[in-house]
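User: Fold this one for me? It's Amino acid--[acyl-carrier-protein] ligase.
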Amino acid sequence: MDAQTSFLDKLFDRGILHSSGVDGLYARSGAFEDVIRRFEDYVLKIGEGETSEAMVFPPGMTMADFETSGYMKNFPQLAGTVHAFCGDNHGHMDLLECMATGKDWTEGQKRTDLALTPAACYPLYPILARRGPLPEGGVTVALQSYCFRHEPSKDPARMQMFRQREYVRVGNADEAIEFRETWKRRGKEIMDALHLPAHVDVANDPFFGRAGKMLGASQREQELKFEMLVAITSSENPTACMSFNYHMDNFGKAWGIARADGEPAHTACVGFGLERITLALFRHHGLEIENWPEAVRATLWG
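Assistant: Here's what I get for Amino acid--[acyl-carrier-protein] ligase.
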């Protein structure tokens, strides 16, 4: 039994997570959710003085905005779309017959106007674009969303449905880069406060295909993406629990987000993997929260 499975089994045995029968899709205990709430409160207090506004998004976004994001072009292997029955009575009879005979009843499903949200910040950009030019100095938005990535795994830190807490900076290039560098420093301070062994390293997104390899190499070369890595299921392959990203003006151009001077906005974000950070806490401090170090408990519970 590998380390990933054994840690997952321990979480199941203690009732911290509950299996659904599908890898990467779990019910979470009240204790698990309490840790997430406490961590979110802690992170929100750190950035509250710099935040223009806060938003929480549903786990779905419009298909039009999903297509604008370029996600399907770059990460088709991870994407999920929403389909539904759109037939008449005759189609319903066919569906029931397929279900009764064990045939594929999903063939009659048609795509809706929704896709599953792949990254928490994506639904924000069209909202900002519709408002017109940004105010002088740009905006900083705190947001949270459930996200979906189609990558079933027995690694509990690689869930198919998970939550991201983010701060997004939208402004000019200097503002975006300064924001990212500030949060890289803060991210290490947060991990130190939680007594989690972590380090930051340059990274790239999992772009698809041959062209994707070149995109990933370019992303690393330009140092557009960094990740905060923590050993959860493997010391050899630590897990990214935070990411610090500078998107240049890619999203500003894609959605038509203009700065006060009319130029395309630059964006940056810091993302916190809420389930992953919680799993890291259970992995390094034990499965009994009352036995965690007092300093960690004081940081999260006050």
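One thing worth pointing out: The longest strand covers residues 161-171.
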